[in-house]
Specification:
The protein is of the alpha+beta class. The protein folds into two domains: 5-102, Alpha-Beta Complex (Ribosomal Protein L22, Chain A), CATH 3.90.470; 108-208, 4'-phosphopantetheinyl transferase domain (Ribosomal Protein L22, Chain A). 26% of the residues lie in helices and 33% in strands.
């Protein structure tokens, strides 16, 4: 299918979301991969991962790029050769990228699953959300918090950076569809704007410095 959704965040930043329904053969058409990327795809054991990888190349094309325009640094953070900022995510049958010409950005898509409650104490003080009586709402909120922290980590990858101790997400109301976050690291604090949306049992969160 074509793009599932595009979001004009502002005049310099745009989000592209793809719903992966095509076969690997269909997704491979019209896409030229660099040799390392082709070898990476060929080495993937899961066709779902292969399809996710190829769907991201279609998202790059929608943003005006080809596979060769993308490279990764030593921390695994993606970059564009023209200097624009990019972040990439893939979860099951959805993938997304966010591209900005002027600010660092991060994006994450997560499937809403009950297990998030069991691991919540590893990435956020769960007591902050004890007032949520509805289990479904709790899963939704924790998934947003996890996605927000993942997005901030993608902007600010650092060995030893703790989701629980170094990344803070301000509490929020679902209807606001946005919040703020902070990364505290090496004596510095960096502030971020965070926006989120939910669709088909998935949560997409993106952050802007």
């Amino acid at each position: 299918m074509p793009l599932y959704k595009t979001i004009e965040v502002n005049t310099t930043t745009k989000v592209y979301i793809w719903k992966i329904e095509e076969s690997l053969e269909v997704l491979s058409k019209g896409i030229t991969l660099t040799k390392p990327c082709q070898e990476r795809v060929d080495g993937m054991r899961s066709e779902l991962h292969q399809r996710g990888f190829m769907s991201v190349r279609h998202l790059l094309a929608a943003a005006g790029y080809i596979d060769a325009d993308l490279y990764y640094d030593d921390l695994g953070k993606p970059h564009l050769k023209d200097g624009n900022h990019i972040s990439i995510t893939h979860s099951f049958h959805f993938s997304a990228i966010i591209v900005s010409s002027d600010i660092p950005v991060g994006i994450d898509i997560e499937k809403q699953r009950d297990k998030i409650v069991k691991i919540a104490n590893k990435f956020t003080p769960l007591r902050e959300y004890k007032i949520i009586a509805n289990h479904e709402a709790l899963v939704s909120k924790l998934t947003i918090v996890w996605g927000a922290k993942e997005s901030l980590f993608k902007i600010h990858p650092a060995e030893g950076l703790s989701f629980l101790h170094n990344i803070y997400i301000e509490d929020f109301a679902f209807e606001d569809a946005q919040t703020t976050g902070k990364v505290r690291w090496n004596g510095n604090t960096t502030d971020y704007s965070i926006k989120f949306l939910e669709f088909e049992g998935f949560t997409c969160v993106y952050a802007l410095q």
